């Protein structure tokens, strides 16, 4: 009982905690499905790169527009997309693999972002910016996160079928004239939007954790795209809630505590997951035998 | 030890499916494995003509000055050594690669009437998608991004699954299938695509003998009963002699194109191998004047 009360009390006592909780729910609704597709497309690394690439854009937005969510978001969207597109472009035109291009670009981007911010606004709370701060979830941030989650749900519904096909069998989609490139660009746009949104509560360095970690954990339990999206949303919300309380209780930046909780859930999934979890693995060969009816 | 409940159910499902498959096999012995999918009674026509086609792949010319035709309703095997440009040719016909010279004319069909089966390695088989959903992708031209899939279209997918010997597999995730079963699923998708022209890139590589036999029967029916145009990249020359009336042998350029017994000769095979051996020293640019085949 004590633990449950401890979990609920901060939300009863403080309105900023309630706001952060609502923010977490909105974040989870956007990040769950998007993270699922990132993982299915084997783009976890690209997600990482994008999350870091958001920083210099946010810095420029800050310089031009002050500490407004819209300025930060627009700036972040711009540089995020620029890095995503140029990494794809460079790897297509040169012999460098996409992973290498992404690594170089995101490192450069985050370095540029930190230098820009500490030059122009030396008093900025860099720790809060990089690792998140619950108190930063003000009303404007909340509206932004909620809008982003709503938009994500709508757009995902529109591109769901071609996106699934593009992840599973991209050549088929291309041969059938399914406009795979367009789907890819729209999807990247959604990724950046959700990163900018996660950036509000978790900070630049931790934002991607809420996209990738729950989605990877979900793969140990579910085996359909719909179930994966739902489960990773649930896991993201759970991580967010427990992480927020921990952040409040131990006076830590919110990003790392949320991602740590997600990491613990991931550890549990690796061990006990129904699909390929370490503790269940020995059963798999037995169930395979039933498949041998047709070669 | 007591098995947890879901495990029991899974075992039961397996048993039921195995029974269904066994029953199905029994039935199949009496009637030959055939198309039977969409519009099997409608004859499809469409040919492909290549005119001086040259394609560069990753900036190296992979197909040189290829001219000729896959006639409507013909069944052609494409053979040649590794790196001979066979896959490049397939990808160019289907529109995934652009010719750097020359062009491809489709006769009596639109590009959407070409079905293409890429090499096995190009698909993510661990993707969480069911067998039925995979087969339903064959309706892409009819449903696109937004349109719903009708009950009849679902039934067609089920029939296509039966036609490839996978009755009762509809709900199975593709990740649980063997390579042969997965190839059957992709053929069911081809059945559903109902295309006038079918391009197959190494459809039987690393596939067990029984599946190969079943699927070759299916391809044969596409040719004989449904008059579809079939082009298949193959390695097994014996298979080509037995099942494919026409052959195109390429080693970046055409070595022979015509009736299989005239093309698949010892001297042509030797010539192709010799050309393959010389590729290492070859210049990267195409400096050859249009030597049409």
Indicate the radius of gyration of chain A in whole angstroms: 20 Å
Given this structure, which CATH class of chain B is correct? Alpha Beta
Could you tell me the mean pLDDT of chain B?
80
Strand content of chain B: 15-25%
Please indicate the percent range of residues of chain A in DSSP E strands (runs of 2 or more). under 5%
Q: What's the oligomerization state? A: heterodimer
Brief summary:
In chain A, 79% of the residues lie in helices and 0% in strands. With 295 residues, chain A is mostly helical. Chain B has one domain (2-277): Rossmann fold.
Describe this structure in words.
The complex is a heterodimer of chains A (295) and B (293). Chain A has 13 helices and no strands. Chain A has helices spanning 2-13, 15-40, 44-65, 69-93, 98-120, 126-131, 139-168, 170-175, 180-202, 207-218, 225-249, 254-272, 284-288. In chain A, helix 2 (15-40) runs antiparallel to helix 11 (225-249) and helix 3 (44-65) crosses helix 9. Chain B is an alpha/beta fold and 293 residues long. Chain B has a single domain (2-277), classed as Rossmann fold, CATH 3.40.50.300. Chain B contains ten helices and nine strands. A six-stranded mixed beta sheet of chain B has the order 5-6-7-3-8-9, sandwiched between helices. A three-stranded antiparallel beta sheet of chain B has the order 2-1-4, covered by helices on one side. The interface between A and B is large, with 35 and 49 residues.
């Amino acid at each position: 009982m004590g633990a449950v009360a401890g979990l609920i009390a901060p939300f009863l006592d403080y309105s900023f905690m309630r706001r952060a909780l609502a923010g977490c729910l909105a974040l989870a609704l956007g990040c769950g499905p998007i993270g699922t597709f990132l993982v299915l497309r084997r783009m976890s690394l690209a997600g990482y790169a994008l999350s870091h690439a958001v920083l210099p854009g946010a810095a420029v937005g800050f310089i031009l527009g002050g500490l407004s969510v819209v300025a930060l978001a627009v700036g972040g969207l711009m540089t995020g997309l620029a890095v995503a597109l140029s990494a794809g472009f460079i790897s297509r035109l040169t012999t460098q693999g996409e992973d290498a291009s992404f690594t170089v670009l995101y490192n450069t981007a985050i370095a540029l972002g930190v230098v820009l911010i500490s030059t122009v606004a030396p008093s900025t709370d860099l720790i809060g910016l990089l690792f998140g701060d619950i108190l930063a979830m003000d009303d404007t941030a909340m509206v932004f996160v909620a809008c982003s989650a709503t938009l994500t749900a709508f757009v995902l519904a529109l591109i769901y079928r071609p996106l699934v096909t593009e992840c599973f069998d991209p050549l088929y989609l291309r041969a059938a004239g399914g406009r795979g490139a367009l789907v890819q660009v729209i999807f990247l746009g959604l990724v950046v939007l959700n990163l900018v949104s996660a950036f509000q509560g978790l900070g630049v360095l931790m934002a991607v954790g809420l996209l990738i970690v729950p989605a990877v954990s979900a793969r140990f339990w579910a085996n359909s795209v719909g179930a994966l999206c739902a489960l990773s949303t649930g896991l993201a919300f759970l991580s967010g809630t427990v992480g927020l309380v921990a952040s409040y209780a131990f006076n830590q930046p919110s990003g790392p505590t949320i991602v740590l909780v997600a990491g613990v859930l991931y550890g549990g999934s690796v061990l006990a997951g129904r699909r390929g979890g370490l503790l269940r693995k020995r059963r798999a060969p037995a169930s395979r035998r039933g498949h041998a009816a047709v070669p | 030890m007591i098995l947890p409940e879901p495990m029991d159910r899974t075992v039961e499902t397996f048993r039921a499916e195995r029974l269904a498959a066994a029953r199905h096999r029994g039935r199949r012995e009496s009637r030959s494995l055939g198309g039977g999918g969409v519009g099997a009674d409608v004859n499809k026509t469409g040919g492909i003509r290549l005119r001086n086609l040259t394609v560069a792949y990753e900036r190296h010319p992979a197909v040189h000055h290829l001219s000729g035709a896959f006639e409507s309703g013909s069944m052609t095997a494409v053979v040649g050594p590794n790196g001979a440009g066979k896959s490049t040719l397939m990808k160019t016909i289907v529109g995934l690669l652009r010719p750097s010279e020359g062009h491809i004319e489709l006769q009596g069909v639109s590009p959407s009437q070409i079905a293409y089966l890429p090499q096995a390695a190009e698909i993510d088989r661990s993707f969480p998608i069911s067998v039925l959903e995979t087969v339903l992708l064959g309706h892409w031209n009819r449903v696109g991004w937004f349109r719903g899939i009708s009950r009849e279209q679902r039934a067609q997918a089920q029939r296509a699954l039966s036609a490839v010997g996978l009755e009762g597999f509809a709900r199975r995730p593709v990740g649980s299938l063997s390579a042969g079963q997965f190839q059957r699923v992709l053929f069911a998708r081809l059945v559903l695509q109902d295309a006038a022209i079918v391009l197959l890139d190494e459809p039987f590589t690393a596939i067990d003998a029984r599946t190969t036999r079943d699927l070759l029967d299916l391809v044969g029916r596409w040719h004989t009963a449904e008059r579809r145009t079939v082009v298949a990249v193959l390695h097994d020359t014996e298979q080509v002699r037995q099942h494919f009336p026409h052959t195109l042998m390429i080693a970046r350029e055409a070595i022979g194109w015509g009736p299989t017994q005239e093309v698949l000769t010892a001297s042509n095979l030797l010539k192709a191998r010799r050309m393959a051996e010389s590729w290492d020293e070859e210049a990267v640019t195409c400096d050859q004047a249009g030597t049409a085949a």
